[in-house]
## 1
Amino acid sequence: MSIAENIARIEAEIAPKAQLIAVTKTKPVAMLMEAYKAGFKRYGENKVQEMVTKYEQMPKDIEWHLIGHLQTNKVKYIAPFVGMIHSIDSLKLLEEVNKQAAKCERVIDCLLQIFIAQEETKFGLSEEEAVALLQSAAFDGLQNVRIVGLMGMASNTDDATQVRQEFKNLKRFFDKLSSMPTHRAVQLTEISMGMSGDYLIAVEEGSTLVRVGSAIFGAR
Ligand SMILES: *Cc1c(COP(=O)(O)O)cnc(C)c1O
């Protein structure tokens, strides 16, 4: 099937609950343009440099999602144009996003990346850390960022039961956070979870944004 057909099929599978983010890391601009010409405008990259290079070459009405780990010293390169950052994993990073967004006179939508997998991974906040961040006085002052939801990555396993449980845990935490009082009003609407191998399970468990790469563009 073509790129456009893959996108149409997946969008039909996840609608109306979730939106598709086409993950284009390592794929050439020609492939992105194929999707763009079919009318698709929401792309995810996991590396800053690759996103900037593609941003410069592509039409400017694209919504760019940064889904991979973000180093504070690289925020300035994406702040002028990024649509959403999925990988906020510290207050320090959020403070830098706020600072760079202010310079661009923008408010940048962000997700807190929550650690949900069984396996040891390097990035993500624990539930306790996420609560502490949202309740901190420092967060109150960050007027150029908006926390609009949570992101999580399930364990890299064929065990669908375990993957489903991890998504359930993220949804449960999302619901808990949504009803938790914070100093500053926070409106959580997005749950970014689900990739090529597990997006159908993710949507069943409450995902609103699925990040799908290889099922659209082929193996990397
Ligand atoms: C690569 C990547 C994806 C997409 O993975 P596929 O298995 O190709 O769909 C999703 N989320 C993140 C954070 C990624 O780095």
## 2
Amino acid sequence: MKRASRPAIPIRKAVLGLAPYNAPEEGRARKLRLDFNENTVGCSPAVLRALSRITAKEMAIYPEYQKTTKRLARFFGVRPAEMHLTNGIDDALHLISDTFINDGDSVLVVEPTFDMYRFFAELAGARVLALRYDEEMRFPVDSVVRALKQPATRCPRVLYIANPNNPTGTLVQRGELRRILRAATGTLVLVDEAYFDFAGMTILSWIRRYPNLLVARTFSKSAGLAALRLGCLFGKPEILAAMRRASTPYPVNSAALVAAEAAIRDPRFLREYTREVLQSRAMLEKGLVRLGARIYPSAANFVLADFGPAARRLVRALERKGILVRGRRDFPREGFVRISAGTRADTRKVLRAMERIL
Ligand SMILES: *Cc1c(COP(=O)(O)O)cnc(C)c1O
């Protein structure tokens, strides 16, 4: 494809400065997808049945959110005013920028982490202060607290934490989160719990305790609904009311609402898939160690492994066999591979392929 030349209209400076995003390759459906931490078996059959019952007339009507919000809020154990539905967590990040970040504000991230935090912050014209996990993948909690305790004019506007973190799989513990939230008097703290189901830990109920806390969940991972884009943002009603003012009127489509309601009515599917993944993850961790990789114990549905100089060849050879995993270059050095845990059959397949390659 030919590179598009610039349009005659000047582009915002923040946009010109963005690094291009590496979107997943197209045509992944028939491969073994262990590169984006998706559900590998698909959503609950009950979701498909519910979607097939949508009528032509319902399709013609703009989405209505009240009823689904009420049902989802009850499922998550919050009040409807404490929850806001978004077009995936990605859209929630965009909305956080639109509501709270002025050009030139600073935001805080701890890298490596989910790339979209930096992306949406930079898009909004924010300065990104990036602390780093160390070689042992430990979260630098003291430095984070120090950054939050700066005078109000200099402290970051937003702090983004993925918990468990992607791509390290590590957890920030409750005690550390408590220290952070107490220090964050002038900073909005987003705790992104996209992998909550695999972690067995949440601070969702803390939204009542800390006025600057937002918690995010998604139907993209354990529930297997990445295609429909549905995220849930939780926080104090005042914060969410401000965000609704900045939101597009219909961020979530009606099919996603129907799917989410069907998904929460089938908790057994979620429970069984989660249990399968946890067994598969244990098998993956053991297998990777046997292959000589250094791993970082994971609380999510993926494992980060350090293969050193063999990593690049490994990722390419797996791809030729139709198995997609994620090579990461943005660590202190190259050599890290993130592999999603699907079913145990998926894990057996990827381990066997890696054995042959190495
Ligand atoms: C995959 C992932 C998401 C997904 O967000 P959606 O936009 O809801 O699909 C969010 N946060 C983290 C840390 C992730 O890894």
